[in-house]
Amino acid sequence: MQLLRRLSLGLLWLLAGVGILCGLVWGATAAGVIKPLVVISGSMEPGIMTGDLLIATKADTADLRVGDVVSLPSELTESLVTHRIESIEQTGTGQFAISMKGDNNEFSDALDYAVGASVWKPTAQLAGMGTVVTRITTPAVVMPLLIGLGSLLGLSLLIPPAPQRRAHSAVAVNP
Q: What is its EC number (predicted)?
């Protein structure tokens, strides 16, 4: 019984650590420090594969160069598109027009991207983790995970801890 209690407590601590990490990622995302992106097409393969998770950070548009990979908002899809820069030109004070193309695409993107002083630039790539994040956030997975977590918590509370042994101290008696 004690082994079962220790295993459940160990798993709860591991899940608590994962929860703290998720909270930190959520906080950084809400604060606009990072933007997690799940790759949903093969337009950048083989360098960036479908199902990868990209972690993008803000980058100054003035510092970008042809060949950089950035994630820009598309007027056509109303979502971010992550492609390689083909050309960049300043169109006004703090405004830029960027032309992009996916590495695996035959043609450049249909429209240029009008952007301001900063853009999202992928700085980390986690192979296949986008698929994992997408799948574990579905109700069919979240509900059993929550039930299992509740069961582990209940199990750790129901099984009493092992009795503690007291250390005996020697008491000197004066005759």
A: 3.4.21.89
